[in-house]
Amino acid sequence: MGVAAVESTDVRARGLSPLWVLGAVAFLLVSLVIGVLVGPIELGIGSVLESAAARLHIPGATTSLTPTEEAILWEIRVPRVVLAALVGGMLALAGATYQGVFRNPLADPYLLGIAAGAGLGATLAIAYLPEGLRGQRALPAAAFVGGALAVFMTYAVGRSARRERDAATLVLAGVTVAAFFTAWQTFVQQQNAETLQQVYTWILGNIPSTGWSDVILVLPYVAAAAVVILALRRVVDVLSLGDDEAASLGVDVRRVRLALVIAATLGTAAVVAVSGLIGFVGIIVPHAIRLLTGVGYRALLPLSVILGAGFLVLADVIARTALSPAELPLGVVTAFLGAPFFAIVLRSTRVGP
Amino acid sequence: MTELLLRDVTVRLGGREIVRGVSARVQPQEWVALVGPNGAGKTTLIRAIAGLVPFAGSISLAGRPTRELRRAELARLLAVVPQEPATPPWMTVAEYVLLGRTPHLGTFAAEGRRDREAAAAALARLDLLDYRERRLETLSGGEKQRVVVARALAQEARIVLLDEPTASLDIGHQQQALELLDALRAEPGLTLVAAMHDLTVSAQYADRVLLLDGGRIAAEGLPHEVLTEETIARHYGASIDVVPVGGGLAVVPRRTRGRRSRGQTSDVSTLDQAGV
Description:
Radius of gyration of chain A: 22 Å
CATH topology of chain A: ABC transporter involved in vitamin B12 uptake, BtuC
Structural class of chain A: mainly alpha
Low-confidence stretches of chain B: 263-276
Number of helices of chain B: 10
Strand content of chain B: 25-35%
Number of strands of chain B: 12
Number of domains of chain B: 1
Order of helices and strands of chain A: HHHHHHHHHHHHHHH
Strand content of chain A: under 5%
CATH class of chain B: Alpha Beta
CATH topology of chain B: Rossmann fold
Strand order of the largest sheet of chain B: 6-7-8-3-9-10
Oligomer: heterodimer
Helix content of chain B: 25-40%
Distance between the termini of chain A: 36 Å
CATH superfamily of chain B: P-loop containing nucleotide triphosphate hydrolases
Number of domains of chain A: 1
Largest interface: A-B, 36 and 48 residues
CATH class of chain A: Mainly Alpha
Structural class of chain B: alpha/beta
Radius of gyration of chain B: 20 Å
Shape of chain A: globular
Low-confidence stretches of chain A: 1-8
């Protein structure tokens, strides 16, 4: 066996194949364009491009849109589409991360009690805060605090257990905390029946049309979470061998898992704070990618961000047009679209996750 | 120079001492078999050496106490082949073997040219180069075992700890795997410490045998010194014959009843007496 023979043989991990990246990015771009163009007021693609060119100070470009249309485009539609992309990308990334870290295909972004905690926070805000305070700032803040608090409690309960090294202990602690917070939330909700509708709407999720403020609120968390998780994507592959084998390969399992869980959790809490609980994205998107491509986490994590973003932008278009001028809850759309799509993927592939 | 040195190693798990005061010395390129009845502490001792459970006493690799090594440093000196390694079905052979390079990489780094070469060399050594694009789920038990050894080889460690390396293999694949491990001692020069339950195989392949019982070293030495009828009867509660074969010895169970007798009812009553 000559050395030259070995060197000429390429032993590589399947990374991001250019074809898949290209396909994913194309899907995201098409979704973004559809998201910007479709709405109660039709904007032509030509005039949107002209307006964009004018905004970018390209010489000779002038917008043909009226000032109202300009405002709809740049202050409502574009920020909403961007927000939907951030929320979708984050939920899919967090789902894939939890699935890898906890080696559980059913793990979702809400695994450690975020959903229940954020739900309680939002319910308390809706039930007890005076009408004026409830609006733009207080609800997301309360949801964020509730979600973060629930995850903190999950960690505290999980660590106090004797078998703290076990990832399953943490998941059980999450279930416990979630049950407690959900019961508390239901109690508050029953006491204040008039808030039922509002709480319900929040729980089913929606992307708000609040201009750029929510985008600015969410962006730092999502960006930080994505940087941490994507930087650790090779280690997530190592973690899929289990704690002991990862440790015997030199990985500080507890520290890496903590870093990944904190990143995924903070990103999810930020996203949940503005959009409510949008189910299904964090499970469906990573699994669909896995079933279609069979790749490991190092490729799955980046693809989840891109395709999750595109998927939620499209789902949001449907949420705001299907019953226009009323809006469907986004969680309803993601499940309604996602379930049949996923069933088709399950049926047509043989490769297990 | 001693490759692996254990001094008075004790492991306590859940309030019980699983390994008690084990001291041992392993020389470079030696093959030491850890034998002993179920629950003797073989796996726990291996986990202690690998730094996976806390222990009292001291363990040194090539003169360096493992307690003072960072995880990645330890993993560059010592590789582990677990009894039931996780083999994610979607992973390709190349990807799996490349995971062996983890201790040589920074936390955020991807594999480089040097890592791919090491993985290719490990695959070539085990005759697995043509398998590199195969998914693990498509491999047979024997092929998987070779892939796991290839991962340990790609790790470029000096010592490999193996926990029942041939437990799931038929006799042919068992022999292939053992011959292969033996060859790896000469090139690239590995030192092997293996928990093994097959005493005959231990006698055939190991330079020295270390018999554990109740967490303590009950006997230690050359195979024919440790694997005697009397020692095995005492520690395994087994009645066996030790028969010389070829250059080594074979451990053969002795039937106490005739071949055709049905021992089922009396087996059950024995279990009853034992309080099971």
